[in-house]
Amino acid sequence: MNKGVKYFSGFLLAVALFLTASTSGPAVLAGKDILKITFLNVRQGDSAVIQTPDNKVIVIDGGQLGTRYSRFDAGEEVLIPFLEKEGIKKIDMVVATHPDYDHMGGLVALLNSDIKVDEVLDCGVPHTTGTYKAYVKAIKGKKIPLKIPEKGEVLNWGDKLRAQVIAPQVPPEKRMNRNLNNNSIVIKLDYGEVSFLLTGDCEHEEEHEILGSGARLKADIYKASHHGSRTGSGEVFYYLTDPEVAIISCGKRNKFDHPHWEPIKLFRETGAEILRTDYHGDITVITDGKTYEILED
Q: What pTM was computed for the model?
């Protein structure tokens, strides 16, 4: 059952907020028990900011780090400015789903910033890149506690919601020789009657392991794995997720041609609304646990 999606963007959002203040029928969900998740437009990469009803803030991935080949640093240019705009001065948990530069890179600027980070959740797989070394140096320099989650672990993101790690399914010592994407931290987030599946760059191998675990996948909002690549969003995995909305984080005209046509076809055939950061900019989902609304940049 569709839980009442409403979309607002640009001028329409401003009108909606005006109507909220001037009429008895609110156009945008409001109240203290609101879960807000913003999927940031970090070009070809992933980054999401979660603001919970218990006033906790979680950052999942940070997009790419600036290099000599590309000066764009998603942490400095997108993530930190967003946090500052939201008035966020402390992060309860940073989640680095896996050590690819387009997920972990932007976290370096955040970890080195004046914004306090209480804890880092890491998939437990080291990498040889400069990006990974800068990430580790920042964590050690700030003496931030680092944790590797167990499969099935329920994260402390507040009493009003449930966040469970459903992957990686294999223990840390068996992750070293695997494709980095298949070590992605995958989180099932439930708030009341509204649920999210946050997949990192999970590919078919890890999807099959999740299916074998018996984890409950059904979710209203699906963050499409691996930027909408054909290497993820396998049919059985996706059918069991059965989302109303599929959100794809990817860059305009990226060299990987993400998203691929196979997942897009699958999403369309099942009637899911498709939202893309390269088309829609930042995508924010707000929910009171009963219904949800989506705000586009």
A: 0.91
